[in-house]
Amino acid sequence: MTILVKYSDTKNNETKYHLVNNPSETEHIKRHYMKKVSRCDDPAYNMIEIIYPYHTERVKIYELNYRRPS
Fold first, then answer.
1. CB-based contacts of 56: which residues, under 8 Å, 6+ apart?
2. Cα–Cα dist 69/57, whole Å
3. CA-based R_g, the chain, Å
């Protein structure tokens, strides 16, 4: 499972994205930080499509329960 993590860097006032595809890291994230499927009940809202030249991937959106230590 590949996870696309979106996070806000409040110190620099910007939003960043990080793609995690290492199986041990994704399992750690799922086990410790994955809270639930996104807030909306509509299943279409909880999915994102990533379109590549020869295929399309559908990814489920989850919320992460994580706050970086100050």
1. 49, 50
2. 33
3. 14
Q: Which residue has the tokens 């595809």?
A: 21
Type of residue numbered 7? Y
Domain ranges of the chain: 3-64
Of the candidates 38, 24, 23, 32, which has an alpha carbon nearest to the alpha carbon of residue 65?
32
Instruction: Give every CB contact of residue 44 below 8 A, 6+ residues apart in sequence.
Output: none
Structure tokens that stand for 20 in this block: 């995690």
The CA angle 51-56-57, to the nearest 5 degrees, is 105
Residue pLDDT, tens place only, 10-64: 777 887 777 787 778 777 777 776 665 555 566 556 677 777 788 877 777 766 6
Query: Does residue 33 contact residue 66 with C-beta atoms inside 8 Å?
Result: yes
